[in-house]
Amino acid sequence: MLKNLLKNMKLGVKLNLILFVVFFVIILINGIFLSNILQNNAEQEVANQALILMETMTSVREYTGDQVNVGTIKKLSPNLEIDGEFIKVSVPGYSASEVFRNLRKREQYSDFLYKEATLNPTALRDKADKFEAEVVDRFRGKHNLKRISKTEQPEERGFRDTSAGKLFYIARPLQIQNKSCLVCHSTPDQAPASQIKTYGSENGFGWQLDEVVGAQVISVPASKVFAEARGLQRIVIGILVLGFLVAALVLNLFLKLSILNPLVKMSRWSTAVSTGTSESDFEHQANDEIGLLAASLNRLKVSLQMAMNMLKQNPNP
Q1: pTM passes above 0.85
Q2: Mind giving me the DSSP string for the chain?
Q3: pLDDT tens, 97-144?
């Protein structure tokens, strides 16, 4: 059936059918490769954003712990209090969270999130949710009570779906590596009175040296980046479709002017010659294959006329 269908098709239809099949295959292959490339680029973009912010918050923590807490505040107030009030900025996690909170006031970062998710936090705002608790548990399973090198920080990254859309996250374990941290987090009786006054004595105690108590979690919005990637993909596919339509139009025009029209004229001329209604030569100006065919037909016409004249001269051989 297909063979008969192709047999009855005109050249223009066959050409357009072939072009459509080739175009469809090209678009399909390009679409797959383009989707993968744009997807990888989008993932790399959000990962770079998250990584820069993670390194920044880690630097804030280190600066607070090394310079603000140990280098300044403890020298001025060993009990970490002023006028009976606990000095919150002496806590690395608090400083990092507040710096990020100020960053989020800028519109371009309003959807970014940072949390020092802790299983047993001093401040309840740092309490790990279900997802964060699972991340912390995975870190605890691998690194709890095992000293983590600062130069080889373990890391977990991936995507999570939230009510705000798809987020890309990077998480790193929070491990108690300084004995000075246990002053505030071992038992309530060892903690500064101002800390108990501010946060109470129920939370944030019982920590151990080298224990993984939580995780730094940076989350950056990914939906917009992926939407932009999909938009770019549609633009590229649209350009390819437009290019195909232009190419198909040019090829169809070329086929009609250079091949189909001369063939139709040649067919009509051959019919006229065979019925004796025309004795003129077939005219084709170009020296292409159609021109060679026209010259051959003209020679064939001459041979036919010579044969017909011979038959007229010798009707009874």
Answers
A1: no
A2: -HHHHHHTS-HHHHHHHHHHHHHHHHHHHHHHHHHHHHHHHHHHHHHHHHHHHHHHHHHHHHHIIIIIIIIIIHHH-TTSEETTEE-GGGSHHHHHHHHHHHHTTSGGGTT-EEEEEESS-SSGGGB--HHHHHHHHHHHHHHTTSPPPTTS---EEEEEEETTEEEEEEEEEEE---GGGHHHHS-TTTS-HHHHHHH-SSSS----TT-EEEEEEEEEE-HHHHHHHHHHHHHHHHHHHHHHHHHHHHHHHHHIIIIIHHHHHHHHHHHHHHTTS--SPPP----SHHHHHHHHHHHHHHHHHHHHHHHHH-S--
A3: 999 999 999 999 999 999 999 999 999 999 999 999 999 999 999 887
